[in-house]
């Protein structure tokens, strides 16, 4: 769905994003650690693992009409195609009708909790639609019969499925142009039942661990729908003798769902850190969400070829003192980013973030929620002595425009670019995503955001770190 966004709305959202980026400069945090810590890499995994893909464009689609405040706008509605990093193809539908798709945007498989599906009571109905319509159901005659129509084409099926999804994902007042597609949309909307969120194709839990040199650090548990995964040990730690082992201490190069992985760090190792990567080839479960850090419209998976999925976990070790492990995850329910800090050392770990000091006692784990504005870019770093550094960056994208409140979208016509594959029953428009003359808006919004930019951090969870095996 290249076109369901107006020039006015695109410029207005661009102003909001730029103003949020201005505020983000106030979120750069240099945490002063009260105790020495080991040096760690500044690249912290920003996702939960799974498939990473680049969006290509609409592949199979028809036309739909959005009714909004007395204005009707015809848009393209149907299936997108994405190419998966290191092999594979995905088919997706849009679940973010008023936001533009950015050309060649990178997408990451994402839990519903990190997208606009969080808190949407109808999210499970969308998954039902995906499993009971095109392309999962490719018997178009049978699908047409259930919808009470005939002669359903692939374009009709894609358009009708997308329209039904928009009614639940965005609460949109939208109809398919083709009577056959509209019949299908009505059938899917009325028949949909709530299903649970599908599990991720591949994740590692937790994504960061810590401990003393001479111990097995972990466990890091593999969660996947693949029959097996390959385990790549830390390349830069091989010379130091760091290995990836199972619970019994046996070095491993493959694992499966439920496997527990450990970093086996020699006792005489210098304080340091390492990362392991697991990778598999599998089909990504239908209904998984895909989000972009560039604020390109959120997608939901309708079909997957055999695709490459991966996940990374890091380990930090030291002989003594505080030994932190840090990870981040978007929390749309609380409107922010959760930073989890675990300390497996023998001294307290203290850091400062946004002017507030936090102390994690030895053997404890705490989660700090950083409150952010919708569409706000964030980039902050926790630093300390001995080269300790962790950087977290991204964009909080938790709402569709319809759920975000504020002004309604004014839908205008846009220039038509070349389409990508397939055939269409209507024109495809590309929403304007570039910069525009919105300086007065940016200035006023930025000033307002800076005023509220000192929002306090909240401790939302405190628990004792799990014991090591």
TrEMBL record:
The keyword Transmembrane applies. It comes from the Bacteria. The keyword Transmembrane helix applies. Residues 92-192 form the Thioester domain. InterPro entries: PLipase_C_C (IPR008475), Thioester_dom (IPR013552), TQXA_dom (IPR023849). Gene3D superfamilies: 1.10.150.480. Residues 328-394 form the Bacterial phospholipase C C-terminal domain. GO terms for biological process: lipid catabolic process. Residues 1-41 form the signal peptide. The chain crosses the membrane at residues 441-460. One of its GO terms (molecular function) is phospholipase C activity. Keywords: Membrane, Signal, Transmembrane, Transmembrane helix. Coiled coil: none annotated. Residues 421-433 have a biased composition (Polar residues). Residues 406-433 are annotated as: Disordered. This is Cys-Gln thioester bond-forming surface protein. The lineage of its organism: Bacteria, Bacillati, Actinomycetota, Actinomycetes, Kitasatosporales.
């Amino acid at each position: 769905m290249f076109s369901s966004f107006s020039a006015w709305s695109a410029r207005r959202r661009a102003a909001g994003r730029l103003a949020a980026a201005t505020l983000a400069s106030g979120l750069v945090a240099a945490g002063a650690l009260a105790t020495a810590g080991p040096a760690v890499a500044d690249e912290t995994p920003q996702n939960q693992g799974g498939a990473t893909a680049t969006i290509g464009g609409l592949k199979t689609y028809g036309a739909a009409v959005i009714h909004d405040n007395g204005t009707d706008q015809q848009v393209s509605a149907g299936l997108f195609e994405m190419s998966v990093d290191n092999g594979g193809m995905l088919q997706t539908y849009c679940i973010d009708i008023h936001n533009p798709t950015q050309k060649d945007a990178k997408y990451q498989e994402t839990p519903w909790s990190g997208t606009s599906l969080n808190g949407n009571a109808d999210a499970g109905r969308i998954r039902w639609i995906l499993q009971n319509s095109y392309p999962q159901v490719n018997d178009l005659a049978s699908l047409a019969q259930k919808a009470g129509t005939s002669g359903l084409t692939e374009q009709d099926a894609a358009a009708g499925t997308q329209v039904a999804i928009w009614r639940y994902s965005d609460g949109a007042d939208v109809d398919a142009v083709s009577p056959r597609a509209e019949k299908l949309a009505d059938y899917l909307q009325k028949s949909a039942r709530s299903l649970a969120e599908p599990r991720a194709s591949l994740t590692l839990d937790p994504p960061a661990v810590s401990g003393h040199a001479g111990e097995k650090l972990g466990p890091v548990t593999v969660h996947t729908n693949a029959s097996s995964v390959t385990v790549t040990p830390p390349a830069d730690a091989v010379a130091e003798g760091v290995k990836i082992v199972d619970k019994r201490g046996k070095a491993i190069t493959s694992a499966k769902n439920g496997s527990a992985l450990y970093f086996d760090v020699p006792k005489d190792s210098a304080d340091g850190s390492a990362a392991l990567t697991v990778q598999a080839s599998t089909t990504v479960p239908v209904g998984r969400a895909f989000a972009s850090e560039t604020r390109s419209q959120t997608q939901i998976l309708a079909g997957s070829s055999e695709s490459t999925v991966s996940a990374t976990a890091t380990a930090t070790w030291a002989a003594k003192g505080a030994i932190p492990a840090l990870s981040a995850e978007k929390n749309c329910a609380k409107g922010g980013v959760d930073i989890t800090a675990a300390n497996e050392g023998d001294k307290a770990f203290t850091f400062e973030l946004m002017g507030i000091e936090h102390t994690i006692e030895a053997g404890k784990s705490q989660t700090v929620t950083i409150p952010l504005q919708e569409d706000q870019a964030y980039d902050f770093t926790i630093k300390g002595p001995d080269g300790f550094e962790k950087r977290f960056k991204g964009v909080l994208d938790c709402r569709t425009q319809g759920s975000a409140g504020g002004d309604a979208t004014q839908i205008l016509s846009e220039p038509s670019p070349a389409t990508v594959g397939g055939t269409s029953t209507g024109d495809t428009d590309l929403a304007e995503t570039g910069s525009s003359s919105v300086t007065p808006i940016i200035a006023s919004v930025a000033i307002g955001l800076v005023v509220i930019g000192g929002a306090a951090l909240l401790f939302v969870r405190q628990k004792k770190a799990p014991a090591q095996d």
